[in-house]
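Board notes (copied after class):
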Amino acid sequence: MAANQAVLSEEGEWLAIGGYDVTVRVSATDTNGAYTVVEYRLEPGRLVPPHTHTREREVSCVLDGEIGLRIGADELTATQGCLVVKPPEIPHTFWTAGPHPARVLEIISPAGFESYFRELADLDASGRPPEAHPVADLRERYGLTANPEWIPELKTKHGLRLLGE
Protein backbone atom coordinates (compact mmCIF):
# COMPACT_ATOMS: atom_id res chain seq x y z
CA MET A 1 0.00 0.00 0.00
CA ALA A 2 1.36 3.42 -0.92
CA ALA A 3 1.17 6.35 1.50
CA ASN A 4 -2.20 8.14 1.48
CA GLN A 5 -3.89 5.31 -0.38
CA ALA A 6 -7.22 3.63 0.29
CA VAL A 7 -7.17 -0.08 1.06
CA LEU A 8 -9.97 -1.72 -0.85
CA SER A 9 -12.21 -4.26 0.88
CA GLU A 10 -10.78 -7.17 -1.11
CA GLU A 11 -7.14 -6.18 -0.52
CA GLY A 12 -4.81 -7.63 2.07
CA GLU A 13 -2.73 -10.66 2.90
CA TRP A 14 -5.03 -13.51 4.00
CA LEU A 15 -3.81 -16.02 6.61
CA ALA A 16 -5.65 -19.11 7.92
CA ILE A 17 -5.02 -20.16 11.52
CA GLY A 18 -7.30 -23.09 12.46
CA GLY A 19 -10.69 -21.35 12.69
CA TYR A 20 -9.24 -17.85 12.82
CA ASP A 21 -8.77 -16.14 9.46
CA VAL A 22 -6.59 -13.03 9.59
CA THR A 23 -6.20 -10.49 6.79
CA VAL A 24 -3.31 -8.06 7.13
CA ARG A 25 -4.86 -4.86 5.78
CA VAL A 26 -2.07 -2.39 6.68
CA SER A 27 1.40 -3.64 7.61
CA ALA A 28 4.40 -2.23 9.46
CA THR A 29 6.03 -1.25 6.16
CA ASP A 30 2.94 0.80 5.26
CA THR A 31 3.10 2.84 8.48
CA ASN A 32 6.83 3.08 9.07
CA GLY A 33 6.38 0.80 12.08
CA ALA A 34 3.74 2.90 13.84
CA TYR A 35 0.82 0.44 13.70
CA THR A 36 -0.66 -2.56 11.93
CA VAL A 37 -4.30 -3.07 10.93
CA VAL A 38 -5.66 -6.59 10.66
CA GLU A 39 -9.15 -7.88 10.05
CA TYR A 40 -10.06 -11.23 11.46
CA ARG A 41 -12.93 -13.63 11.10
CA LEU A 42 -13.52 -16.06 13.91
CA GLU A 43 -15.73 -19.15 13.51
CA PRO A 44 -18.59 -19.63 15.97
CA GLY A 45 -17.54 -21.31 19.21
CA ARG A 46 -13.81 -20.62 18.77
CA LEU A 47 -11.60 -19.42 21.63
CA VAL A 48 -8.34 -17.59 21.00
CA PRO A 49 -5.87 -18.87 23.61
CA PRO A 50 -5.61 -16.44 26.54
CA HIS A 51 -2.42 -14.42 26.40
CA THR A 52 -0.62 -11.27 27.51
CA HIS A 53 1.29 -8.90 25.23
CA THR A 54 4.36 -7.21 26.65
CA ARG A 55 4.60 -4.60 23.88
CA GLU A 56 1.41 -4.18 21.86
CA ARG A 57 -1.73 -2.21 22.56
CA GLU A 58 -4.75 -3.42 20.58
CA VAL A 59 -7.95 -1.60 19.69
CA SER A 60 -10.66 -3.82 18.22
CA CYS A 61 -13.82 -2.76 16.41
CA VAL A 62 -16.51 -5.40 15.93
CA LEU A 63 -17.70 -5.22 12.31
CA ASP A 64 -20.11 -8.20 12.31
CA GLY A 65 -21.40 -10.61 14.91
CA GLU A 66 -20.42 -10.48 18.53
CA ILE A 67 -17.39 -11.46 20.51
CA GLY A 68 -16.98 -12.39 24.13
CA LEU A 69 -13.89 -11.10 25.87
CA ARG A 70 -12.06 -11.55 29.09
CA ILE A 71 -9.63 -8.75 29.85
CA GLY A 72 -8.01 -9.20 33.23
CA ALA A 73 -10.83 -10.10 35.65
CA ASP A 74 -13.55 -8.53 33.48
CA GLU A 75 -15.72 -10.52 31.08
CA LEU A 76 -17.84 -8.68 28.50
CA THR A 77 -19.62 -9.04 25.18
CA ALA A 78 -18.93 -6.66 22.29
CA THR A 79 -21.46 -6.35 19.47
CA GLN A 80 -21.32 -4.68 16.07
CA GLY A 81 -19.86 -1.18 16.33
CA CYS A 82 -18.25 -1.67 19.76
CA LEU A 83 -14.63 -0.69 20.34
CA VAL A 84 -12.50 -2.67 22.78
CA VAL A 85 -9.09 -1.57 24.12
CA LYS A 86 -6.63 -4.27 25.18
CA PRO A 87 -3.58 -2.68 26.82
CA PRO A 88 -0.19 -4.37 27.13
CA GLU A 89 0.58 -6.38 30.27
CA ILE A 90 -3.11 -7.27 30.85
CA PRO A 91 -4.08 -10.90 30.11
CA HIS A 92 -6.93 -11.23 27.62
CA THR A 93 -8.75 -13.58 25.31
CA PHE A 94 -11.76 -13.48 23.02
CA TRP A 95 -14.22 -15.80 21.32
CA THR A 96 -17.24 -15.72 19.06
CA ALA A 97 -20.18 -15.19 21.41
CA GLY A 98 -23.02 -15.70 18.93
CA PRO A 99 -24.07 -18.43 16.50
CA HIS A 100 -22.51 -16.67 13.49
CA PRO A 101 -18.90 -15.86 12.62
CA ALA A 102 -17.55 -12.63 14.05
CA ARG A 103 -15.55 -10.14 12.01
CA VAL A 104 -13.30 -7.64 13.77
CA LEU A 105 -10.96 -4.88 12.62
CA GLU A 106 -7.98 -4.47 14.91
CA ILE A 107 -5.34 -1.76 15.16
CA ILE A 108 -2.14 -2.97 16.81
CA SER A 109 0.55 -0.58 17.98
CA PRO A 110 3.45 -0.65 17.58
CA ALA A 111 3.48 -2.45 14.24
CA GLY A 112 5.13 -5.77 13.50
CA PHE A 113 2.76 -8.22 15.16
CA GLU A 114 1.42 -9.21 11.74
CA SER A 115 4.61 -11.28 11.41
CA TYR A 116 3.44 -13.38 14.38
CA PHE A 117 0.22 -14.18 12.48
CA ARG A 118 2.26 -15.12 9.38
CA GLU A 119 4.46 -17.50 11.35
CA LEU A 120 1.48 -18.98 13.18
CA ALA A 121 -0.31 -19.59 9.86
CA ASP A 122 2.83 -21.31 8.53
CA LEU A 123 2.87 -23.59 11.59
CA ASP A 124 -0.84 -24.35 11.17
CA ALA A 125 -0.31 -25.23 7.50
CA SER A 126 2.70 -27.45 8.30
CA GLY A 127 0.50 -30.46 9.10
CA ARG A 128 2.21 -31.02 12.44
CA PRO A 129 -0.10 -31.77 15.36
CA PRO A 130 -0.61 -28.71 17.64
CA GLU A 131 1.47 -30.25 20.44
CA ALA A 132 4.45 -30.47 18.04
CA HIS A 133 4.31 -26.81 17.03
CA PRO A 134 7.13 -24.67 18.42
CA VAL A 135 4.54 -22.11 19.59
CA ALA A 136 6.33 -21.41 22.88
CA ASP A 137 9.39 -20.15 20.97
CA LEU A 138 7.16 -18.09 18.69
CA ARG A 139 5.38 -16.50 21.67
CA GLU A 140 8.66 -15.70 23.35
CA ARG A 141 10.05 -13.95 20.27
CA TYR A 142 6.92 -11.80 20.03
CA GLY A 143 6.71 -10.97 23.74
CA LEU A 144 3.60 -13.05 24.47
CA THR A 145 2.85 -14.98 27.62
CA ALA A 146 0.28 -17.79 27.56
CA ASN A 147 -2.44 -17.74 30.23
CA PRO A 148 -3.91 -21.27 29.94
CA GLU A 149 -5.53 -21.28 33.40
CA TRP A 150 -8.66 -19.61 31.95
CA ILE A 151 -9.21 -22.22 29.23
CA PRO A 152 -11.15 -24.95 31.11
CA GLU A 153 -13.58 -22.46 32.67
CA LEU A 154 -14.24 -20.55 29.44
CA LYS A 155 -14.63 -23.73 27.35
CA THR A 156 -17.17 -25.14 29.80
CA LYS A 157 -19.03 -21.90 30.48
CA HIS A 158 -19.42 -20.89 26.82
CA GLY A 159 -19.16 -24.24 24.96
CA LEU A 160 -15.96 -23.21 23.15
CA ARG A 161 -13.13 -24.95 21.30
CA LEU A 162 -9.59 -23.61 21.13
CA LEU A 163 -8.24 -22.63 17.75
CA GLY A 164 -6.96 -25.72 15.96
CA GLU A 165 -9.18 -28.17 17.88
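Comment from the instructor: The chain has one domain: 13-148. Residues 114-125 form the longest helix (12 residues).
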